[in-house]
Amino acid sequence: MSKSNYISIILGAAVGTLAGYFVAKKKYEQTIRELVDELDDTVAQYNEKYKERLENDEESETPVKPAKEEMNSYKDVIANSGYAKGYIKEKNKNVDKPYVIRPEEFGEFENYETISLTYYSDGVLADECDEVVDDIEEIVGFESLTHFGEYEDDSVFVRNDAKSCDYEILKDFGTYADMMKKRPH
Q: What predicted TM-score, i.e. pTM, was given to this entire model?
């Protein structure tokens, strides 16, 4: 092939690329314009309905209450955002006390420490170093130890907002005394 053939191929590719670029650009600009127009129409319809609702609310003596599902979603947002500290939390639990959380909530707050504990069949709660946790009520609450099997058979997850900690409590079917015999310090 001669030099002119290579130049023709390169020029043809360049022209084809530019033509394709401009055709695609025009097509996607049109698509974007249509989507923006559709979005503007939707916003206008929403604003119309919102104004009608406000007018109807003003005319009516009875205030409009949000749906139960809507209220529950608001409560979830508030409860999970950390703004609820010191107020009533999920299932009417006071956040000043430790409370059980779902496994997927464990460790969701970056500023909360995550700690693993073991609960033995003889009622002893121990930390990762096998040291006995003396104040169970203050750390995780005795009530939380009754929730094994609620989400997972052998674990319970507890949040203590006062200590900014999430606790993973793993159930051990052995006794603390037997464990200490096997692994003396």
A: 0.49
